[in-house]
Amino acid sequence: MRRALVVGNWKMHGSRASVDALLGSLTPAVADATAEIAVCPSYVHLAQALELCAGTPVAVGAQDCSHMASGAYTGEVAADMLSDLGCRWVILGHSERRQYHAESDDLVAAKLTAAIAAGLQAIVCVGETREQRENGEAEQVVGAQLQGALAAQAGLQDLVVAYEPVWAIGTGLTATPQQAQDMHAFIRQSLAAIAGIDAAQTRLLYGGSVKAGNAAELFAQVDIDGALVGGAALVAEDFQAIVAAAG
Ligand code: 13P
Fold first, then answer.
1. Does the active-site annotation cover 94?
2. What residue owns the CA closest to ligand 1's atom 7?
3. At the fourth CATH level, which superfamily is domain 5-246?
4. Which atom of ligand 1 is nearest to the CA of 228?
5. Which of 36, 96, 103, 164 is catalytic?
6. For the CA atoms of the chain, what is the radius of gyration?
7. Contacts within 8 Å (CB) and 24+ apart, 211-219
8. What is the pLDDT along the chain (247 residues), one digit of tens a residue?
9. What is the C-alpha to C-alpha distance for residues 195 and 199, in angstroms, rounded to an integer?
10. What residues are in contact with ligand 1 under a 6 Å CB criterion?
11. Residue 36 pairs with which residues in a beta bridge?
12. How far apart are CA 104 and CA 148, in angstroms?
């Protein structure tokens, strides 16, 4: 049995005041949720979010981490620093990191190794662009991203994979439930071929314009175990409705 998981990726949004307001509304609203819940604010709001989420069902994670353990890497944040702070989760390989920061599959793999060593639970993101889908390359692209990030890793039993078609992120275009299910089934089948992964137990999240209004039909698909939510995670009642749909 895979427990539903709903994760909010706040991206580069927020202020101390908005974090207070959002978590002040969200944490009581999800107190009785059956789904597992996490929020991933900006690094600078992590300590504040951890304080506000203490004693609630909402776990906290980061949106990235360094592939290096420590040292002279100006501007980087180590996985150990995140776990030392109390973070449980880290998002890796988000398409915005791949697109704007030239993250390769090799770099994502190195970050995953660092995250696992630090005891963080990683959410590895994969997904094709619109052009790749139109060219019929979606499965090939996603398969290569999985292989590139996951092959030869140890400690993958708690891995979470998020399928986020790039063309659906922040665009209001959601993959249809069937499109998402087809890719999730392909991902689960691909994971089964990678050593050290229990594919049947690995949770697969869908991400890309998930809203209160489309969450239930996505979660009804057999291989969709939850969501990685961007814009709708910034509004407490919208995120809470997605969490409720997952329960
Ligand atoms: P939106 O929900 O805003 O489309 O963002 C999805 C996403 O990128 C989550 O990581």
1. yes
2. 230
3. Aldolase class I (3.20.20.70)
4. 9
5. 164
6. 17
7. 211/174, 211/238, 211/242, 212/237, 212/238, 212/241, 212/242, 212/245, 214/174, 215/241, 215/242, 215/245, 215/246, 216/245, 217/177, 218/174, 218/177, 218/180, 219/4, 219/245, 219/246
8. 899 999 999 999 999 999 999 999 999 999 999 999 999 999 999 999 999 999 999 999 999 999 999 999 999 999 999 999 999 999 999 999 999 999 999 999 999 999 999 999 999 999 999 999 999 999 999 999 999 999 989 999 999 999 999 999 888 888 899 999 999 999 999 999 998 999 999 999 999 999 999 999 999 999 999 999 999 999 999 999 999 999 8
9. 10
10. 9, 94, 164, 169-170, 207-210, 228-232
11. 5
12. 9
46, 83 contact by CB (below 8 A): no
Q: 106: which residues sit within 8 A by CB, 6+ positions away?
A: 148
CB 93 within 8 A of CB 148: no
Q: Which of 45, 67, 94, 184 is catalytic?
A: 94
Which tokens go with 165?
């078609």
Q: What's the whole-model pTM score? A: 0.98
